[in-house]
Amino acid sequence: MTSTLHKTNRANILVVDDTPENLRLLAGILSEKGYLVRPVPNGKLALSAAEKMLPDLVLLDIMMPEMDGYEVCQRLKDSEVTKDVPVIFISAINDVTDKVKAFAVGGVDFITKPFQVEEVLARIETHLKICSLQQTLQEKNQDLATAIDQLQATQEHLIQSEKMAALGQLIAGIAHEINTPLGIIGSSINNIANFWDENLEKIPQIFQELSEESQAYFFTLLYRATHQETSFTSREKRKFKQKLTGDLMAESVENPEEIADTLVDMEIYENIEHLLPLFKLPDWEVILNTAYQFASFKKSISLIQRATAKSGKVVFALKTYAHFDSKEEKVQANLHDGIETVLTLYQNQLKHGIEVVKNYGDLPKIMCYPDDLNQVWTNLVHNALQAMDYKGILTIETQQQEGNIFLKFTDNGKGIPPEIIPKIFQPFFTTKSAGEGSGLGLDIVRKIVEKHEGTIAVESIPGQTTFTVSL
């Protein structure tokens, strides 16, 4: 059941008053102004009339027998059908308390009798305009929701068939942007689900068997693992591991390499003197492994939080990528942090045959759009892994030279044929089989780099392909 306000130029007004003279007066005034008026003498008939044909506005008296105006208004607001119909009270009651009650039960206005005709007409016109604007807004919102649904359906078809190129770069770019955070969330949720399935029943028993001293060590490990903010390179982590191994061996701790490896994975790199007594306890392995699993659980949650936040910005990314006039401001960011985030997201793919070599230089923080640059690192890493069939060496080098920052991603895959290189940054160009790629990844990368007033270049020979981003 919908309002007649948009269907005709005559607004449908329901007038409710138990005094016949008032009904005739109001009906005459409103009819003269072109309104469709339905006068009813009591509240029960008013509710029935409103249900049968939804009014655009209700003029409602308060003092009526059997059912007063307050109750009529409350019932109108309780109904899913009539809850959005504006109700204007019109009454001889002039007490502030009564007016407050009128607004409390859902009224939008209050006119005191005796009334001025001009005032009544002005208030009616105002609230009809407000109602009309609200209906228009709802329709626009519905149109927008429909458009988004159609856009998503279009993207799914575009991934399967690149003959949809007529849709243009903008629409396809949105689909590509959405895929990344969805993949991150899915991967992290799987990690959380596995942790839950494997450990839920064990946790109570583990903690029951731990002494107070062991529990204290557990919480110390967990706190340190989840409060490490500094990122280190693989080379630095190897040095930490060697140092930790030496410290553990000096204290005659058994399995020093295994313990050092787990501590580094938990991002506990130094200052372990107060933890040394732990590794003398008979249940040290249970404590360490349980803390490691909980720390990994927490990291998966953090990844989901970041991915969810990024997916919320996809709509704004359309304007950024398509028109290059985004109003978002650049912020200072550490480029290494962004690369490490991407590598963490791809950990499952990396650990089954990919060696990652990181040669990070001393880079300053720069003003940039970090979320956009993370999309660049994601595409370059993903392409490198595919080029190597997920088995090989991925080398990431960063350095600063003469005010410019260079970031190089090198894989030892089969390489790119020379005749293909000039085309790889073109939209919709792909060498993959139908349904495996839309040919938009490197086009999006190029746009983001150019938005940062940078460049991207590629050099390739069999066994070595390098993408170089200059900012």
Task: Summarize the structure in short.
This protein has 471 residues and is α/β, with parallel strands linked by helices.
In total, how many beta strands? 12
CATH class category label of the largest domain: Alpha Beta
The overall pLDDT average reads 81
Structural class: alpha/beta
Order of neighbouring strands in the sheet with most strands: 2-1-3-4-5
CATH topology type of the largest domain: Heat Shock Protein 90
CATH-defined superfamily of the largest domain? Histidine kinase-like ATPase, C-terminal domain
Helix content: 40-55%
Number of helices in the DSSP assignment: 16
**Poorly predicted tracts of residues:** 155-173, 315-327
How much of the residues is beta strand, in percent?
5-15%
EC number: 2.7.13.3
Domain Histidine kinase: 370-471
Catalytic activity: ATP + protein L-histidine = ADP + protein N-phospho-L-histidine
Domain Response regulatory: 12-128
SSE blueprint:
Layout: E1 12-16, H1 20-32, E2 36-40, H2 43-52, E3 57-60, H3 69-78, E4 87-91, H4 96-104, E5 109-112, H5 117-160, H6 169-199, H7 202-209, H8 212-226, H9 234-250, H10 256-265, H11 284-311, H12 314-323, E6 331-333, H13 335-345, H14 347-350, E7 354-359, E8 366-368, H15 370-387, E9 392-401, E10 404-411, H16 441-451, E11 455-461, E12 464-470
Parallel strand pairs: 1-2, 1-3, 3-4, 4-5, 7-9
Antiparallel strand pairs: 6-8, 9-10, 10-12, 11-12
Helix pairs in contact: 2-3, 5-6, 6-11, 6-12, 8-11, 9-10, 13-15, 15-16
